[in-house]
Design brief:
The complex is a heterodimer.
Chain A: E1 6-17, E2 20-32, E3 37-41, H1 48-56, E4 64-66, E5 69-72, E6 75-76, H2 82-88, E7 93-96, H3 110-122, H4 126-139, H5 145-148, H6 158-170, E8 176-180, H7 188-204, E9 208-213, H8 216-222, E10 225-230, E11 233-239, H9 240-245, H10 250-257, E12 307-310, E13 313-316
Parallel strand pairs in A: 3-9, 3-10, 7-8, 8-9
Antiparallel strand pairs in A: 1-2, 1-4, 1-5, 5-6, 10-11, 11-13, 12-13
Chain B: H1 21-65, H2 68-73, H3 79-89, H4 95-107, H5 121-156, H6 161-175, H7 178-192, H8 205-234, H9 237-244, H10 249-287, H11 292-301, H12 305-333, H13 335-338
Helix pairs in contact in B: 1-4, 1-12, 5-6, 5-8, 5-10, 5-12, 6-8, 7-8, 7-10, 8-10, 9-10, 10-11, 10-12, 11-12
Classes of the chains: A alpha/beta, B mainly alpha.
The complex binds adenosine-5'-triphosphate and magnesium ion (MG).
Chain lengths: 320, 340
Amino acid sequence: MSDPLLSVEGLSVDIPVAGGTLRAVRDISFQVKRGETLCVVGESGCGKSMTALALMDLLPRRAKRRAQSLRFGKNDLATLDAKQMNALRGDRMAMIFQEPMTALNPAYTIGNQLEEAYQRHRKAPADEARARAVHLLEKVGIANAGQRLGQYPHQLSGGLRQRVMIAMALMCGPDLLVADEPTTALDVTIQAQILLLLRQLQRELDMAMVLITHDLGVVARVADRVAVMYAGQIVETGTAAEIFSSPRHPYTRGLLACIPVPGKTKRGDELGSIPGIVPSLVGTLVGCSFRERCGFSAAICAADPPVHSAASHAWRCVLR
Amino acid sequence: MLVRGEIGPVNGALQPVSRHPVALALAFAQRYSCAMLTYAAKRLGLALLVALAVSVIAFTLLHVSSDVAAAIAGEAATAADIEFIRKAYGFDRPLIVQYFDWLGRTLTGDLGQSLYYKKDVADIVLSKLPVTLILGAISLAFAVLLSIPLGVLAAVYPNTWIDRLALFLAVIGQALPSFWFALVLIMLFSLTLRWLPVSGSDSWAHFVMPAIALGYYAAPAFMRLTRAGMMDVLSADFVRTARAKGLSPTSVVFKHALRNAIIPVMALAAVQLGFMLGGSIVIETVFALDGLGYLAWQSIRHNDFPVTQAIVLLLSVVYIGLTLLADLLNGWLDPRIRVQ
Ligand SMILES: Nc1ncnc2c1ncn2[C@@H]1O[C@H](COP(=O)(O)OP(=O)(O)OP(=O)(O)O)[C@@H](O)[C@H]1O
Ligand SMILES: [Mg+2]
């Protein structure tokens, strides 16, 4: 088995807030291999975006990142300085954001924004960068790519802009693509197209992909491996098959119960939802962070739960 | 299968672009003409309407607030003299008729005779205009060169000493009356250090202090607008995208952030230049700089109303022109206006 491309050990993100320190990501570890898609899934506010931004070193100014190691290929991202990190970003690792409507600069043409990263990292002449941009626009399924280069973001629809964002992320042929809810802002038919496209490109270019989503339907379609996050921790991780066919953590089961199943869920049936609210992330949490909402909770859950594992499947719960 | 990072180029979808200037200009016109032309035409129409309104106001104020015939006749004139002048100049006609008569003459460049200098008003005014325009341009350049870098630095390093320094300078700039600041400058640079001449307009050195005094007054507005705009833009999603691409901090701050934050600043700059031309009345008088402002002050002192009126009108038109320029600049810099 090959070494993982990305290996995260003990990553935490702290944000100072009025009442103390908001611990948005709490000591998480995971690995992604080349050519593999890891889906990070969890409710809103559980720290998915902070995890992604921490990998890219794009956290908000106040947020502090701590990690034992963030191995990426030959580098440890935790020890790189801003300049070295800048050299990797956009070249070896790229990111796509949730909001295609605001993620592109309104003042520059699509072509300009596509070409600049390539020119910076490859020191390529303008016409080579342009050719590359056209090629990638075609690759993400945009017709008339040559003309699109001269257009401004406001002239494109949301779906097209997200395709442009994908093309932009792929300009330098990155080893790792981090996609933070890339389809959430799009309508359903476009969502499916974009996901399919991402999946296809990931395979074709043999990239590693970390795809963040709160939609288990998305996970089912694209994930090789899944990490389920709750309150800043990874509570369960495993292959997509393991997570979908034998979920162990009550939170994962709760999430799965929320997906409507065609044929099984009757029209008008209430969709499942997990009762209760996420605990505050300010300060330290002792014990299982899910216990207040958990149907199985017992006295033992007040202590930090053990991590059980079976093959590549691991979960943070007293239940086996 | 394609190998990572080595996607080959392209099935020739690039169209050859001619570099010939005429071809470029044509392509350019094709791409932008519709949206930009409509926009420009609308703004121009609006500007003309405002100019017309200003001319009505300027005319009416003068003729309602004072007896023009008496002013022309002078202090020693008898009632009969005044009546004679009223008839001779046609001031006995209905105001509306006089207005169109005056407007027609004004549009053909006939601004009448100066009562004090006994010369053509248009000639006098035009001869003084360059000094004022140069002063305005230098002042604006000074204000922009001082305030935009400060505003950018303050936004990139918020709540640091550089931010506080910028705020401090801005507060001082807004609090100090420009004539007082001008006097301080004269005391420091002319009387104590003897680096610069006190007054006159013979050489470039004469413009240094007036430009600083005038520009310093406008700088705080630019600085605060730049800082606020940059703060906004630096937290925008597209700036994060630029950083995610691994662009250099310089490119992120200047190419991606400043290019968007500068749009309202440019618009303000055009409008501020108008204010500076107005403000130059004080500054030119303090420094005895021989421009429009100084002339305005002289004409008011000598009751030379044709000159005063011509200057008011000219400054208004320049101001309207600058506002129009600001709008066009706005459209030019913001593709969302320029390209539909
Ligand atoms: N700039 C910030 N300042 C303070 N707290 C923040 C900031 N950004 C995020 N947080 C907090 O950090 C926690 C994790 O946020 P994060 O954006 O990672 O959630 P998420 O899982 O991506 O949620 P979503 O699905 O809504 O995008 C949340 O509790 C959020 O309130
Ligand atoms: Mg998020």
